[in-house]
């Protein structure tokens, strides 16, 4: 693999981190050297504690992503295809959209408790809006001709939605999911920091209270890597799911 | 499934004293809100040593950062028992919430060192509460026990507490905020005192013990439950109290021994070496009317007055000495 | 026998605040079974609107549309609409074969529909291109895919909306011959909308000339040229030249007026 300039920049920043702690440019026990951080990370990975917590967090994130994403796609389809639903619920959605997710956590705790249902709902809410917006835009941009094409062959509305509109809107929907994915990881960790003993978020709080900066930064490094890997994985998935979109774009250009 | 549960229930009703029997059958799950601090050592001891299991109870601890969701979670029914500092509990009581004390948790020792310490930068010249007037004093939260004892210390050392600017800084960030000059003084709780002196010892110094200097042996934190839950499930809480208090005994018998520090290190993740230099609180079983009256009086003095019910009515039988 | 009938068809669109805009005013026409009808009109005269109403894709404001004697309220199984913009009506995520199969797979199931796609693909000269994707083909080939897809549904009638306007001149001649060939082999009924005078004469049995908006029928002409029509020889036929002269004069006069 060729080392790109971006990789050099990251390596440079990591070296700067190591040096700033070792040479005392940043003089605080809460600023451990990268090598200490990685050692702490490796230790907690080896005990199996962190892998278990990562799996838990990823499970909650995945469940929230699935629930919120499905709701977003279905709502987007309904809003775009059944004008009545948009008239009935559009305002509600627009009112809820600007509310920051942390602000809805207290009522969610009241109704859903402090366990997975609350955390997954918080993630689902975060995912819902970008997916909804992109689905709506994607569906509205579907060529009217391709929908009329379905009608002229006597294809019913459900099949048209599933076989013409949804695939045509898929590139836009997936773009919404990519935005949602980045938010979902962050929000999962935040929700886990509120209460409970599970997941990366709770580990972060525990280590903060124990004054263990290397472990804390270790998890932060891990989150960065995890976020990067998730995004890369998603892009790879996207290239498989909508290969035609990338290819058609290239041919047309 | 339902048969076993019903059988267990029948057994629980019929033989409340045959505790060991529960170890075999279904355990009653109790969710307890805790903060990862030294004060909850007896609870963890009782869990680890099987005292709760012997009483037919399975404890599910839920850690909340700074205790923000603890008492609200108790009201909402998320927790059966919540560990919290006494000022936050009493403020809830003042607002009409039916909290009842089911056990003491921690109090100051009669003389230093105690679990709260007031730190300043070396060479800042700050020595007393009078020197703190017009200065920024960090407390992890406003209107809790840390803040209250801090205000009492300011007054006791000749300062006007109203002229001190309280800044909210979480414990983990206090040492950096103080060393970096964002605040002029900070009230640390253990083990953050030990951590700050260990890592910033060349720049920070301790000038006061806000607890033992203002209220020697004064109360700090307790375990509370809801009154209606206690009324309906008194037996369960009797068992809870018995198990927790065995944990208190376990801890008190091991004061100064490595076994206790190992236990604390295991649940709090604080490195063992740091715990060697950490001051521990006293671990009481009971909650007394006298100490609650003292707290209410002190709270009233520092602007947290109001109509408080009679202290004795707030103490459940498990917390009576 | 009249296969498609439009009876006093009127189309109006609501306007903001004002009275509705009438874009089509009591148009009546019919297409005989097996006939090739061309509808000729200047751009923007509402030809596509007319065709969409005939296809059941757009409801008329008043008047009636009938196919095979039955009123049309939804797209009828007998007639298939062929779109002007093949690039918009083909599904880019489906291969050529799967695009053709799309016309029938809701009725036949995916496997049988894919098998049945081979014959229309062969008919339009795209044998061996089944596994290509539309965006890998030229514009002319894509329009062939669209025609093959229409044929896969085995309609009795094709409603063609300027199907050759988006391709180059030579490809257009090629596709015109293809459509004529299919029309005669399959004994189809065709209604084709175009603004190309030569195309109308070359292909149709009869030409209906439309006016500008609000659209009405201006004239109806029988082409009366012998079949089969060779793409070169037909264009040199005196009747072709006569019709072209007449129709261009009409359209230009109307355009200027």
UniProtKB/TrEMBL annotation, chain A:
Cellular location(s): Cell membrane
Family: Belongs to the binding-protein-dependent transport system permease family.
Listed PROSITE patterns: ABC_TM1
Membrane topology category: Multi-pass membrane protein
Biological processes, Gene Ontology terms: cellular response to sulfur starvation; transmembrane transport
Ranges where the ABC transmembrane type-1 domain occurs: 54-238
UniProt source species: Falsiroseomonas algicola
GO cellular component: plasma membrane
Keyword terms, alphabetized: Cell membrane, Membrane, Transmembrane, Transmembrane helix, Transport
Transmembrane segments: 58-83, 95-114, 120-142, 163-196, 216-235
Annotated Pfam families: BPD_transp_1
Family annotation (InterPro entries): MetI-like, MetI-like_sf
The name this protein goes by in its record: ABC transporter permease subunit
RNA-binding keyword on record: no
UniProt superkingdom: Bacteria
Automatic annotation (TrEMBL), chain B:
Main location: periplasm
Annotated protein name in UniProt: ABC transporter substrate-binding protein
Start and end residues of each SsuA/THI5-like domain: 39-253
Keywords of the record: Signal
Entry's transmembrane regions: none
GO CC term (a single one): periplasmic space
Subcellular location as annotated: Periplasm
A Pfam entry, by short name: NMT1
Superkingdom in the source lineage: Bacteria
Organism annotation: Falsiroseomonas algicola
Record carries keyword NADP: no
Signal peptide: 1-23
Family to which this protein belongs: Belongs to the bacterial solute-binding protein SsuA/TauA family.
Coiled-coil region list: none
TrEMBL record, chain C:
GO MF, one annotated term: ATP binding
Start and end residues of each ABC transporter domain: 4-237
Family matches, as CDD domains: ABC_NrtD_SsuB_transporters
Entries under InterPro entries matching the protein: AAA+_ATPase, ABC_transporter-like_ATP-bd, ABC_transporter-like_CS, ABC_transporter_ATP-bind, P-loop_NTPase
Keywords: ATP-binding, Nucleotide-binding, Transport
Pfam family, one: ABC_tran
Family: Belongs to the ABC transporter superfamily.
Protein name in UniProt: ABC transporter ATP-binding protein
Species in which this protein is naturally found: Falsiroseomonas algicola
UniProt lineage: Bacteria, Pseudomonadati, Pseudomonadota, Alphaproteobacteria, Acetobacterales
């Amino acid at each position: 693999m060729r080392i790109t300039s971006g990789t050099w920049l990251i390596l440079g920043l990591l070296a700067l981190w190591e040096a700033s702690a070792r040479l005392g440019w940043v003089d605080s026990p809460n600023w451990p050297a990268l090598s200490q951080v990685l050692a702490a990370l490796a230790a907690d990975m080896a005990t199996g504690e962190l892998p278990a917590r990562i799996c838990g967090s990823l499970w909650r994130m995945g469940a929230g992503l699935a629930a919120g994403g499905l709701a977003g796609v279905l709502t987007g389809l309904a809003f775009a295809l059944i004008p009545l639903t948009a008239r009935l619920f559009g305002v509600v959605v627009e009112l809820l959209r600007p509310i920051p997710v942390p602000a809805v956590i207290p009522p969610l705790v009241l109704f859903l408790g402090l366990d997975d249902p609350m955390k997954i709902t918080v993630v689902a809410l975060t995912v819902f809006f970008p997916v909804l917006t992109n689905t709506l835009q994607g569906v509205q941009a579907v060529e009217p001709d391709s929908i009329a094409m379905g009608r002229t062959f006597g294809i019913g509305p459900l099949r048209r939605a599933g076989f013409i509109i949804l695939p045509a809107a898929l590139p836009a929907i997936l773009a919404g999911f990519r935005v949602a994915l980045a938010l979902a990881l962050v929000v999962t960790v935040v929700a886990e920091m509120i209460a409970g003993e599970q997941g990366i978020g709770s580990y972060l709080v525990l280590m903060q209270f124990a004054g263990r900066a290397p472990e804390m930064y270790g998890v932060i490094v891990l989150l960065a890597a995890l976020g990067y890997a998730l995004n890369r994985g998603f892009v790879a998935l996207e290239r498989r799911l909508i290969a035609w979109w990338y290819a058609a774009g290239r041919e047309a250009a | 499934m339902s048969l076993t549960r019903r059988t267990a229930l029948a057994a629980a009703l019929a033989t409340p004293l045959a505790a060991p029997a529960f170890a075999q059958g279904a355990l009653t799950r109790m969710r307890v809100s805790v903060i990862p601090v030294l004060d909850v050592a007896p609870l963890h001891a009782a869990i680890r040593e099987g005292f709760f299991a012997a009483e037919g109870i399975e404890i599910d601890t839920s850690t909340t950062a700074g205790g923000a969701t603890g008492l609200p979670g108790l009201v909402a029914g998320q927790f059966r028992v919540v560990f919290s500092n006494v000022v936050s509990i009493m403020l809830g009581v003042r607002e009409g919430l039916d909290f009842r004390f089911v056990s003491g948790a921690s109090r100051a020792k009669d003389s230093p060192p105690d679990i709260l310490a007031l730190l300043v930068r070396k060479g800042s010249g700050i020595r007393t509460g009078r020197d703190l007037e017009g200065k920024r004093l960090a407390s992890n939260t406003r209107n809790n026990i840390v803040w209250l004892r801090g205000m009492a210390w300011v007054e006791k050392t000749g300062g006007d507490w109203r002229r001190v600017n309280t800044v909210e800084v979480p414990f983990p960030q206090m040492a950096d905020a103080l060393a970096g000059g964002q605040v002029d003084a900070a009230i640390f709780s253990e083990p953050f005192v030990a951590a700050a002196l260990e890592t910033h010892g060349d720049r920070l110094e301790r000038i006061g013990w806000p607890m033992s200097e203002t209220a020697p042996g004064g109360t700090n934190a307790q375990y509370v439950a809801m009154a209606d839950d206690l009324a309906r499930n008194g037996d369960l809480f009797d068992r809870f109290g018995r198990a927790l208090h065995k944990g208190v005994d376990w801890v008190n018998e091991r004061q100064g021994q490595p076994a206790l520090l190992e236990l604390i290190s295991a649940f709090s993740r604080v490195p063992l070496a740091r715990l060697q230099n950490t001051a521990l609180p006293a671990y009481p079983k009971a909650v007394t009317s006298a100490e609650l009256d003292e707290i209410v009086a002190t709270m009233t003095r520092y602007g947290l007055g109001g109509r408080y019910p009679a202290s004795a009515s707030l103490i459940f039988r498990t917390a009576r000495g | 026998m009249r296969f498609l009938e439009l009876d006093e068809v009127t189309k109006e669109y609501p306007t903001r605040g004002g009275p509705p805009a009438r874009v089509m005013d009591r148009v009546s026409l019919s297409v005989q079974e097996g006939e090739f009808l061309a509808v000729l009109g200047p751009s923007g005269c509402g030809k596509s609107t007319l065709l969409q109403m005939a296809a059941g894709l757009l409801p008329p404001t008043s008047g009636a549309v009938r196919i095979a004697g039955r009123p049309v309220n939804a797209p009828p199984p007998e007639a298939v609409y062929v779109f002007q913009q093949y690039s918009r009506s083909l599904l880019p995520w489906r291969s050529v074969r799967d695009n053709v199969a799309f016309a029938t797979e809701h009725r036949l199931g995916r496997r049988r529909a894919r098998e049945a796609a081979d014959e229309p693909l062969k008919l339009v000269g795209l044998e061996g291109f089944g596994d290509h994707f539309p965006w890998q083909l030229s514009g002319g080939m894509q329009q062939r895919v669209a025609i093959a897809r229409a044929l896969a549904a085995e309609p009795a009638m094709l409603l063609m909306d300027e199907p050759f306007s988006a391709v180059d001149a030579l490809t257009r001649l090629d596709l015109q011959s293809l459509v004529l060939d299919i029309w005669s082999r399959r004994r189809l009924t065709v209604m084709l909308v175009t603004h190309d005078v030569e195309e109308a004469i070359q292909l149709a049995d009869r030409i209906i000339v439309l006016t500008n908006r609000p659209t009405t029928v201006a004239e109806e002409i029988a082409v009366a040229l012998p079949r089969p029509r060779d793409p070169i020889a037909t264009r040199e036929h005196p009747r072709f030249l006569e019709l072209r002269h007449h129709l261009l004069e009409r359209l230009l006069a109307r355009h200027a007026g």
